[in-house]
Write a structure and sequence with these properties.
heterodimer, A: Alpha-Beta Plaits, 4-stranded mixed β-sheet, two-stranded antiparallel sheet, disordered C terminus, B: N-terminal domain of TfIIb, Rossmann fold, about 15% strand
Amino acid sequence: MSGFFERIAGKLKSYREPGYYTKLDHKWTMVIDLDKCNGCEACVVSCYAENNLPVVGKEECEKSRAFSWLRIERYVEGEYPDVKVKFIPVMCQHCMKAPCETGCPVYATYHNQDGLNVQVYNRCVGTFTCATYCTYDVRRFNWFTYKWPKPLEAQLNPDVSVREMGVMEKCTFCIQRIRAAKDKAKDEGKDVQDGDIKPACSQSCPTGAIYFGDLQDPNSVVAKLAKSPRRYRLLEELNADPSVIYLKRVMGDGNSSHE
Amino acid sequence: MKRRDFLKFIGIGGVGAGAGFVLGKVSKPPGAKLIPYLIPPEDIVPGVATWYASACTQCGAGCGTLVRVMEGRAKKIEGNPAHPVNRGGLCAMGQSSVQALYNPDRITKPLKRKGPRGSGDYTEITWDEALKTLAENLTELKSKGNSDKLHLLTSPLSGTLDKLVREFVSAFGSTNYSHYGLFQRKNLAFANLSAMGTASVPHYDIENTKYLLSFGADFSSTWVSPVNYSNGYGKMRQGAGERGKLVQVEPRLSLTGANADEWVPAKPGTEALLALAIANTIVEKGLAKDGGAWRGVLSRYKAKDVASICDVSVERIEAIAVEFAHTRPSLAIAGDSVSSYENGIAGAIAVNILNQVAGNIGVTVIPNGDDLGGGRRVDFSKKISTLIAAANADKVKALIVYGANPVFTTPKAAKLEDALSKVPFIASFSSFMDETTAQADLILPAHTSLEDWGDDFPDPGVGAPVASIIQPAVGPVFETKSLGDIFIELAKAVGGNAAGKITAPNFAEYLKSSWKELYSRNREMAAGTLGFEDFWNKTLQNGGWWGPPRKRTATVSARASEHLTGGPARFEGEEGQYPFYLIPYAQTAYMDGRGANLPWLQELPDPMTSVVWGTWVEINPKTAEKLGLKEGDMVNVESPFGKISAPVYLYPGIRPDTVAVPIGQGHSHYGRYAKGRGANPIEILPYNEDPRSGEAALNSTRVRITRGGSGERMVKMEGSTKELGRGIVQTVSTSEFKRMKKEGV
């Protein structure tokens, strides 16, 4: 019996333990294998569908106001006929030392206990600071309140709030799916298992290039992939400590048949 | 509308949508009750999603889907992880089918033409009236002994729906039911029929391939079964075994080419010769698994003779040949760089021979067998030119169109529109006002696939028998009808043979009895089930039925070499006047133009150029410099058959003597998102239809480029195409990767 009380007391005092405020419940991590990614953009549409991203039209696209939380960047090297093309999906990197979080005057963007960089739409006052600070250009601003013509709005996902003019938004790692999986696991009295959560992009990826899971779980797929010698992170030298790990593309050298 | 009706409508709209399908039986929407949530429908719990397993019909690949439905509304479409075609993945187009369902520009009610044809002046009529009008027209045809002057033109339907339409047409007394689509790959089917005995694209086992030689098959984005191939591609690159290599032969670097380890930009129209030269080199060097029979035929295609025609060096041809033969297993795929020319059949056969010589058939090329008997039938005698000729000769008295949009997808040179103007009665079952439907006198809008029943027997298969079920995930959004039901009701209204033959009360019942028949024929299906009802319930739950892989092989028939042409493909337009080859290609989002009405797809940046909401012309930067063109300049692309204008995109991944234009924009109808945007390159193509297969060659004209023309400016999403030393996409070399794997790090 005394053990029980000690445990309770221990829990109550856990905030006194060193590292309490930096310790995470989970560390959601995405691993993207660039050797598998073929740049087909299925993930982009999947993201639009899941997260109620508006379509802004040609004129707004021209002003770089397209809403893609997830984009495929394409780089071209060389000249004809020695052209090399590379693709990389870029979304919010959920940096552990996120530059955007330091700038927000109203704490609309902060880091939660799951290691996610989250955006509280109701707090956001639209100062645009986070987007200016962001290293990866992944934050999107609602310049207007976008409406779908009827009945297209019937598609909107009720699990994700629809944003209004003046609010900043970005990739959430499909936090609604994380929440749903955690709720389900809690109801079943278990922890979230590896593979329970698949963000929309990962779910739809035809080549299976996008992996998602908890880096703190040593047995998770992402924890294993994160040890790959091909691992790197985007603009790592800037020390933002991103939670998206890329696996380097393997590119032909020694083309036996190439002069 | 009376108040009472209004209330009823609210009740039905809010709740009934999608909820009304009790397993196996279409029941009345429960929304008929006015206080719906007091006794809520079985599968609606507010806030909790219901998932329906179904199949995607956006293209012909037949991916299995899971449709997420909340409160009777479709929210998201995901790939069915258990489905052997797509294994959980789903492409951009497939995901967008919810926007087709909820498209604001859908045809919401049956329409009857009021103004002149093409004016878009229609009056709304009731379904009873619409069916009556159509039936009257058909009965009149029949009474005058003109039954055979009824023509049906649909997209390539498969399975039970195809069976029903066939039954209807033949019972009515017509033989003119044809499938039409821009990317029907009839050349491939014909070549495979003459080479391997099956008129379809075989299953390509990309997953287990170690050296993939693709002749312009853009299997990452639009070619045949992109999600299936992409899945294989991912496993080929980073699967359990050694990493496979991809070599792409094509004049314009496609999305798939962009992922290749090597790009071989052979001269357009000569790729078939290149394939044969590679095969010949394999035979000559004694590397062939099965060379003897082919030595004679292939000896005409020596690498040293072909090299200069193809613009590929002898050394390179030999190196590819050696690597292709040595790396086991290898695989050559006949994509658009061989099959979309005027001699496309020869090209596809050349690739078959290459696979045969290298010993790939039965290993990575698994010929299809229509195990379940529901596959898509390719009828080579049914051509769009036959329809045009018949219409011009007054032999088409009534035309029914569904799913196909020939007015958009046939070149102006085919003069289809003139022919259609001679058809006295055109009915369309399309739910969208596309260019062909705009010519219709009567429109009976059918459901989209998310509202309808159906099935699909994917072709090409996946080396295993697959039958997918399509079930309504939501109730009808508008006053549309199930396509199958339209035919069944029509059969009843027309009477006679048709009514006698088609007795099912509705298409859902027809489908079920068709599956019952399939079930009774197939012992594998029966295994592990407690009878048909049990099997049917499981099928609805799983999204279909699929069996274990079948090993099949074939031998490329020596007689297939009859179809080889010996020279490069012909192009219209004299080289002096029209210096550039034109490559019109299927773009990831729009395909043959069908995706252009969906806002997600319009705003999806093109993977290679990042252009949104428009058409562009890809020109090599060096060529552009010579012509004095900058990016974004408007140019006229002029062939001997016409002219379109679009802005220039400078693209280093294209031969300097070639220009490319994506297909899909340039709609004159098709809703607010598509209409009046960009240009349609099909308009300026010649009409080069292969008399054997009925496929029209897309890559068959030269063009000239002149500054000028009017059109919308180009908007692209990218900033720089260069990494500027930032190391954004980092790479490891192949040898470094091999070392990593060896050391097990």
